[in-house]
Amino acid sequence: MARRLAAAHGLGDDDLIISREQLEEFQSRLYCLQAALEDVSRDLERSSDPADVAEAFAWLRSNAVPVAEMWIEPRTTSTSGATVDNFT
């Protein structure tokens, strides 16, 4: 039944549905990581002093951890029929 419903909505075997909240949270974390990469690249062009490198690494790490910790799974339906979003 799920496959027929998915096919009726044009979803293939490799497509899945996630909530807007999940997508926005992931995009937000990814944007912060992208900005941190730009910051670190710019900072390291100016200085390769060990203290500056350590500071740049700490900044990059603090923005990478939230992305690495996020896990998104497809939306599922609970036994009560309610839609459940699975992400951390």
Task: Reconstruct the topology from this structure.
Blueprint: H1 2-8, H2 20-46, H3 50-69, E1 72-77, E2 83-87
Antiparallel strand pairs: 1-2
Description:
The chain has 88 residues and is an alpha+beta fold. It has one domain (19-87). The chain has three helices and two strands, in the order H-H-H-E-E. Helix 2 (20-46) packs antiparallel against helix 3 (50-69). The radius of gyration is 19 Å and the shape is rod-shaped. It starts with a helix and ends with a strand.
* Percent helix: 55-70%
The number of helical elements comes to 3
Question: What Rg is obtained from the alpha carbons, in whole angstroms?
Answer: 19 Å
Order of strands across the main sheet: 1-2
- Cα(first) to Cα(last) distance is 29 Å
Number of domains: 1
Total strands: the figure is 2
Tell me about the largest β-sheet.
Answer: 2 strands, antiparallel
Approximately what portion of the residues adopt beta-strand conformation?
5-15%
Mean pLDDT: 87
Order of helices and strands: HHHEE
